[in-house]
Amino acid sequence: MIKNTKNLINRSIRAIVVEISDISKISGAAMDLISDILSRMRLAGTLYFRTSFTSPWSIKVPQFENVARFHFAHKGGCFIRVNDDAVPVMLEQGDLIIITRGASHTLYCDPKTESPASLLDTVVEDSGFLGSGTLIYGEPGTNQETQLVCGHFAFDKNTKHPLIDALPPYIHIKNYGEPAGRWMESTLKVIGAEAGREQLGGDLIALKLSEIIFAQALRTYLCSDGMDKPVLAGFSDRNISLALSAFHENPIFRWTLNDLAKIAGMSRTAFATKFTRLVSMTPGGYITHWRMQIARQVLAESDVPIIEIAEEAGYQSEAAFSRVFKKHFKSPPATYRRELQRPS
Q1: The domain at 237-341 falls in which architecture?
Q2: CA–CA separation, 173 vs 224, rounded Å?
Q3: Helix, strand, coil: what percent of the chain each, to 5?
Q4: How far apart are CA 148 and CA 251, in angstroms?
Q5: Does domain 2-227 match CATH 3.40.50.300?
Q6: Strand spans (E) along 62-155
Q7: What is the per-residue pLDDT across 168-206, written as a single tens digit (0 to 9) for each?
Q8: pLDDT given at position 316
Q9: Which of 9, 18, 49, 342 is the most exposed place for a label (fewest CB within 10 A)?
Q10: How far apart are CA 92 and CA 75, in angstroms?
């Protein structure tokens, strides 16, 4: 049974890869680029539950650091107010919202029920929810039901990237299956159907597919509302993303400005100017930033000698590498490694 579940997940992912190649708005270079960034940041999805909320209801979700929360409206809809002073978002059936930095928010069935809101922990406790199946809350017997698939995406808390840092407080994609393509509509239906069914492998299927949802939501946003936003614009621009993708494919290569400009199909000066304007850092600054993130992970997860890490990061001496590393992480490489690997 477990083997069959894994085969189903693999078939689903292969089908998604085939379908996603037809999305003309997003270049293959940009897709590979985002995948590499999210992989390096250790993207991991967690499903909390599938809900069955019946009117009237209002739930306050507390702030949670180092995660991006998400709610997908599988059936029905609701309002969401992210932070107390924000304009509420109307989440309709088929909509997806990702609250990018885990901010507190209130979910409620209509404006009349927003306040007072019950705390999420109280709702979970009162409903008798034990971590599997469906979270049921609200008045029994009503036909006004909202089914949400809720969870979060977590990243390695020590890994940073300007693309993630530049995201707005929330991303709301209406009728998510439509802009993302036929495969996304099918995937969302699978998640909605599998989450909380208490069948062997169901939550695992929904969990793995949910991680793909974040990547595609980010791509969709970059090619719509995010196209003109600082930093984000650089990752949706065809020329700049080609150069970024080449670097990410081989970050230890000793890239020059001429190399990257040639890949982008631009002159050296035009490329440097456009890159800095769109990404909000110079090409050299971005290269150093990402190499330091890679070096940090190797230090944290292995005993590879620091001189070898320095050479792979493009530095000819351990001293030069250590100076740059300390500038980024406020600690020399050896000290950083000891602190992270120290038993808790």
Answers
A1: Orthogonal Bundle (1.10)
A2: 10
A3: 50, 20, 30
A4: 40
A5: no
A6: 67-75, 78-82, 89-91, 96-99, 105-108, 118-119, 134-138, 145-154
A7: 999 998 886 565 445 555 665 666 555 545 544 445 555
A8: 84
A9: 342
A10: 8
Could you tell me the maximum CA-CA distance found in the chain, to the nearest angstrom? 71
3-state secondary structure of 198: coil
Long-range pairs, 182-185, Cβ under 8 A, ≥24: 182/19, 183/15, 183/16, 183/19, 183/20, 184/213, 184/216
Residue 235: Cβ within 10 Å count: 25
Q: Rounded distance, CA 319 to CA 286, Å?
A: 21
Residue 199 to residues 46, 95, 133, 203, Cα–Cα distance (Å):
17, 26, 9, 8
Hey, which residues does 71 pair with through a beta bridge?
97, 150
Residue where the block lists tokens 């949670």: 64
Token pair of 228, please?
Answer: 């003109």
* pTM check: above 0.85: no
Which tokens in the block code for residue 65? 């650091």
In this predicted structure, the answer to whether residue 229 has a pLDDT above a threshold of 80 is yes
Nearest by Cα to 74 from 53, 43, 45: 53
How far is Cα 150 from Cα 74, in angstroms, rounded to an integer?
Answer: 10
Cβ contacts of residue 285 below 8 Å, gap of 6+? Answer: none
Q: Please tell me the predicted confidence (pLDDT) of residue 98.
A: 93
- Residue 96: phi and psi, rounded to 5, are -125, 135
User: Residues 267, 261: contact at Cβ < 8 Å?
Assistant: yes
Strand, coil or helix: what is 172? strand
Indicate where the chain has its CATH 1.10.10.60 domain(s).
237-341
* Kind plus residue range of the DSSP H or E element containing 238: helix 238-249
Q: Where in the chain is the domain with CATH 2.60.120.10?
A: 2-227
| Interatomic CA distance for residues 169 and 134, integer angstroms | 28
